[in-house]
Amino acid sequence: xxxxxxxxxxxxxxxxxxxxxxxxxxxxxxxxxxNDPAIREAEANMMAEQQSRPxxxxxxxxxxxxxxxxxxxxxxxIFTQQLGADLRTVDQKTDDDIKRWSVxxxxxxxxxxxxxxxxxxxxxxxxxEADYQVAxxxxxxxxxxxxxxxxxxxxxxxxxxxxxxxxxxxxxxANRRFEVGLIAITDVKESQAAYDDAVxxxxxxxxxxxxxxxxxxEITGEYPSVLATPGEEFPxxxxxxxxxxxxxxxxxxxxxxxxxxxxxxxxSRENVRISRAGxxxxxxxxxxxxxxxxxxxxxDNTGVLGTGTSANDQDxxxxxxxxxxxxxxxxxxxxxVQENVYRHRAARENYEKVARSTEREARDAYLGVIAEISxxxxxxxxxxxxxxxxxxxxxxxxxxxxxxxxxxxxxxSLFKAETQYARSKYDYxxxxxxxxxxxxxLNAADVADINNWLAAQPAAAAANRSSGE
Length: 469
Prior knowledge:
The chain is of the alpha+beta class. The protein folds into two domains: 2-56 and 113-274 and 333-466, Outer membrane efflux proteins (OEP); 64-110 and 282-324, no CATH class. It contains twelve helices and six strands. It has helices spanning 2-13, 25-35, 37-49, 52-58, 112-179, 185-220, 244-254, 256-276, 332-399, 404-439, 444-451, 459-466; strands at 63-83, 86-110, 229-230, 282-300, 307-324, 454-455. It has a four-stranded antiparallel beta sheet with strand order 1-2-4-5, with no helix packed on it. Strands 3-6 form a two-stranded antiparallel sheet. Strand 4 (282-300) and strand 5 (307-324) form a beta hairpin.
């Protein structure tokens, strides 16, 4: 196991040299909560969707409107008036100041459409909250996957670097043995080929690590420093309860994505009812009070009658009931009803699809946790066995019973087993989160639980351990 410990320690030191303390999963998750565009978009969408409720409620409440205007009206000209056989012509000018104001109130007494829209708005608000919960849980899983992908990429790079160094030493040894005639040139060529392959694999591993770091930066907005790794005392806790069907039942009751789909089905049903309300009458109360005031002057342009004044001041009050019944609208209402019937049918089918997907994800995640527990234990034994096999092969090589190829293969098997062992730990942790996500119970407390299983260490200490000091 010593090789694996050095491998993990070296991978912890690859990202950031120096004395900086490593970042753990909880700290990375907190950064993601602040900086991830997807979760901030989901929050904004939820807040926007929740405004549909007060908007829908507004149509059920009294609507009060104040209107006021002021007008100055000037007219100047000749007015002709026929009075029996007499034709009267007046040349005059009028100048009126007109002031008018009114306060009107409208209150819906019966409007099925408005009531249904208000009921739908409550469902839309609930769906927005469920969608935001989906986004929150998705963020936890995305952060964990990106975090452990970086660790896995570090392990792969550390493994390739260790392999290159070991093969390099073996190449030097092969050259010395060839020089003194102990081995054939083919052994040297095989060692050289293995070393060249190791260099190429190290380059590829560096590229993979850079990509993994970039994926984590995409979520948090910052490049990660040294990341905490699973400690040597690593708990492998089976799911509780240890019954697959129990997890499926919980998922079908609490899964946030399934709940959102169910609410969407209810919304589509309300849309059908809203469309049908287009055939129903509406009844409303209207009331208005106001005042009309006009002050003006009338001037006789001929100077015969002189100048006079006019005044008008009226208070106005109105109360009424408005009734409206749609008779025929060209078939548009019936078509809208049929459209929403089909959309409701589609929503029901989508709900069934999401339910089946939720059940599959719950079963798969449960089996994934169980399988990874066994896999971690098996790979731990594999590392020990491959370490022993490598030591035996190297001893055989020293006495001439094993070839260079045998040593290279044994060393490759050891590094592969060490890398897979580390990867299996990360996969176990991610599957634990995915199981709770499928069940709809995943939250920040689960991040804290897994974070307690990670071992933080200074970068300098990790570098010293990787070099064997």
